[in-house]
């Protein structure tokens, strides 16, 4: 059996000299050493951390070399010990939490590892059903309550052109995208009525799903009218039925067409039983809002309309999913025609942990494996 000497040395130094090794890891990243951090992307870790320090630390704290170094070391050690990435470190308030409190949080990487463990060897095939937006639409079309088509090859031209001619405007999302990245509104007027030209524009960029635009209920538009404001509804399939797990409302900023927290949107906690907003608003830049920063509409204390109908709807949707999907985080919207599915994913548990200021690892695991 071949021994990976570098791995052994790394693990040893992380044990015997964790502070030194953590800061060395940071400095190596400054010298263009890229690596996997947080389990996902090959990134420039130092730049990632430096940018967040500019957001979350005061100027005085950044200028204090000893304090800044201590924070950087702590960020990297928390990644080793708990699986958090730098954004989670700051958003969860780890700077002011002890080891016991930190261990109660469920970071994205741990959450995905738990779901993979629960699904077993077939997890990639099952995950593809929700990761691929076109595949999910085809399987769950009746719950979308709107028309859509794929844009993945020249064979999709006819369907796309028909939809664009019918509606004039379509919202187009990268098939495997996330966090609102790459979403655009395709307007037939921008192409002088030439649907073929619009199709070619999309196809050149990659694979998309093109959807009829949801007309939002005016009561939800009061927070922000430019974006489709959605509700993140995590659910578990349990022996006692479908259970809703700490839902959130997600509200975009003025001028934005998306509400995603990763794109600067705001979010707040909603009581799963009553549909009452029970927290103030937050974003992932460390801001805390009593009211929406653009519209001025308060968060806490607002009643979400048609909440009982949403609970029934999400229960019906999850019950219709393949049985392998024990946990799903749905994005739902209240349209002028009632509740509709926007998409489904393995949704992070970051929003409720930020909103409520507590870790939800134990509750998540109990529902997933209980």
Please give a structural write-up.
The chain has three domains: 5-101, no CATH class; 113-137 and 215-369, ATP-grasp fold, B domain (D-amino Acid Aminotransferase, Chain A, domain 1, 2-Layer Sandwich); 147-212, ATP-grasp fold, A domain (Dna Ligase, domain 1, 2-Layer Sandwich), CATH 3.30.1490.20. Helices cover 43% and strands 18% of the residues. It has helices at 5-16, 18-30, 45-56, 59-63, 65-82, 86-91, 99-102, 108-119, 123-131, 133-144, 157-167, 195-205, 218-221, 307-320, 350-356, 361-369, and strands at residues 35-36, 42-43, 148-151, 169-174, 184-187, 208-212, 230-238, 241-244, 248-251, 266-269, 281-282, 288-289, 327-335, 338-345. Strands 7, 8, 9, 10, 13 and 14 form a six-stranded antiparallel β-sheet that branches. Strands 3-6-4-5 form a four-stranded antiparallel β-sheet, with helices on both faces. Strands 1-2 form a two-stranded antiparallel sheet. Strand 1 (35-36) and strand 2 form a beta hairpin. Helix 8 runs parallel beside helix 16.
List keywords for this structure.
alpha+beta; six-stranded antiparallel sheet; 16 helices; 14 strands; Dna Ligase, domain 1; 370 residues; single chain; D-amino Acid Aminotransferase, Chain A, domain 1; globular; four-stranded antiparallel sheet
